[in-house]
Amino acid sequence: MTPAVTPTPTFTFRPVDPPRDAALLHGWVTHPKAAFWMMRDAAREDVERAYREIAADEHHHALLGLRDGKPVFLVETYDPAHRELAGLYEARPGDVGMHFLVPATDRPVHGFTRAVITAVLVRLFADPAVRRVVVEPDVRNTAVHALNEAVGFVPEREIEKPEKKALLSFCTRERFEEAVAR
User: Fold this and answer.
1) How many Å apart are CA 21 and CA 64, to the nearest integer?
2) How many CA atoms lie within 13 A of 157 on its CB side?
């Protein structure tokens, strides 16, 4: 008997539309399970303002990940030489910073978050200019550290950011390809 194989979900992406998406994102980023997103106390208007600022920033982008046309995760990308990590490490050409958020759900699907981060990295590495993806999750977020390692990220060091102590980690295209081939 052949074991059942769960297919990897297919995702599409679209830019966040702050007025249209603010209510949805507000529910996601203020949920207790999104504590590391650091917007727990934000009002809906604060969320809309934050994503309007991102939409206007040439070095920062926010996208919704869609499954069957329905938003199921959030991803932000940024130029680490200009945002988030500017001055905290020596950025290289081809570096892109990334954050992602899978909202809390009453019915978690095994492997879904890994499928999300894999899809995000596939999208980022589809750009030949991208050489490394850079992340800086909170040092206390051990679940995301394990997930990052599973897709090829290698921790470099802890860094002090104004809002948190973070684990600076990098994933090259080659490390990602090796990780997903396993």
Assistant:
1) 9
2) 6
- 23 SS3 class: helix
- Give the residue among 134, 38, 125, 123 at the shortest CA–CA distance from 81: 134
- Cα separation values, 35 from 17, 25, 108, Å: 23, 14, 18
Q: What is the CB-side half-sphere exposure of residue 152 using CA atoms within 13 A? A: 21
pTM of the model: 0.90
- How far from chain centre, in Å, is Cα 148? 10
DSSP E strands in the chain: the ranges are: 12-15, 60-67, 70-78, 95-101, 132-135, 154-160, 165-172
pLDDT in tens, 34-79: 998 989 999 999 999 999 999 999 999 999 999 999 999 999 999 9
- The b-or-e profile of 142-162 (16+ CB within 10 A means b, else e) is eebbebbeebbbeeeeeeeee
Residue 105: CB atoms within 10 A of its CB come to 11
Structure tokens at 46: 């604060």
- Token reading at 129: 């200019």
Q: Does residue 101 contact residue 152 with C-beta atoms inside 8 Å?
A: no
